[in-house]
Amino acid sequence: MPSRESHMTKRGKKQTRRRAKKDTSQKGSLFTAALGLNVSTGSIPSLPVSGSTSDPGTGSGTFLKRAPAPSKPTSPASTFWRPIRSFALSQLTSLVRRATLRESDLAPKYEKVHNFKVHTFRGPHWCEYCANFMWGLIAQGVKCADCGLNVHKQCSKVVPNDCQPDLRHVKKVYSCDLTTLVKAHNTKRPMVVDMCIQEIEARGLQSEGLYRISGFSELIEDVKLAFDRDGEKADISSNAYEDINIITGALKLYFRELPIPLITYDAYPRFIETAKVSDPEKRLESLHESLKLLPPAHCETLRYLMAHLKRVTQCDKDNLMPSENLGIVFGPTLMRAPDLDAMTALNDIRYQRLVVEMLITNEDVLF
């Protein structure tokens, strides 16, 4: 039979092991409380079966009913770590937000349809969509004037809207489709708009009659040729053109010569109907819905322009150009009636002015 001394020794060892296990459990509870976790240290939760759980203390397959655990009071450690965890979460959220903003600063991927035109190819050519031969001596197929894609006339109807304009084909800035120019230069807006607005805001916001007074037409044509020839390297600084009205005239000329106006032909009727709404709240809501009809490149350019014109109105004590006057100037410039008779187009002028005036006044709400 085991002696009393050996029995006491074994009992002391068991108590030591229990005490060490209890200390480990307390440390684990403190750590999980700091992280805000609600798990049991040292055990793996088992799946409940018919409302019963397995007894972790036995190796048998018997199941014991477990009473619902009483609600535990919040430990001091959890209370201590809660503000630190909230601060860490806010910092992480801030980092994600900044990364998202940096990503949004990149040039967006605007969708663009191909600009196909009937073309006569010299020598044998194959369709770049179906890879079949193009038969015939003349007008064998069509070619995209913006990216140079060669396809059959029938294939052009099913080609996806993934045109990537090439600067070798886009050889001018003025009179070029806005989305085509943006994609060719991989920018968010046409560089003409960015460069002109930056120059105007740098030295012309206080100029009296800004956008209302016209510059010399010969010099405005020189600016146009400079953009067509040099692109982003065009010099429009005060050293080249001291009169700021030449730069404003070049900007207005760009919008007038767009093949598709900034406010497109498709969206034009909706904008005009919006201007006829008498209730201010409904009119603003309708204007917001009308903006959704614009292509992404057009909407982004319009947003940038309206933000600039809003800054112009903030200096109206010096330049005498409030939103009403800017609406008169930019109404017919940004909006053109699609195939309307002269009388109808004349009646729409006042509504065009109202649309631009509303866009400027509510720029911070609409965009």
TrEMBL record:
Q: Where is this region: Disordered?
A: 1-77
Q: Where is the Rho-GAP domain?
A: 176-367
Q: Where is the Phorbol-ester/DAG-type domain?
A: 113-163
CDD domains in the record, alphabetically?
RhoGAP_chimaerin
From its record, what is one biological process in GO terms? Answer: signal transduction
InterPro entries listed in its UniProt record: PKC_DAG/PE, Rho-type_GAP, RhoGAP_chimaerin, RhoGAP_dom
The UniProt keyword set, sorted, is: GTPase activation, Metal-binding, Neurogenesis, Phosphoprotein, Zinc, Zinc-finger
Q: Which residues form a coiled coil?
A: none
Q: Which GO terms describe its molecular function?
A: GTPase activator activity; zinc ion binding
Q: Does the keyword Zinc apply?
A: yes
Comp. bias regions, Low complexity: 67-77
**Protein name (database record):** N-chimaerin
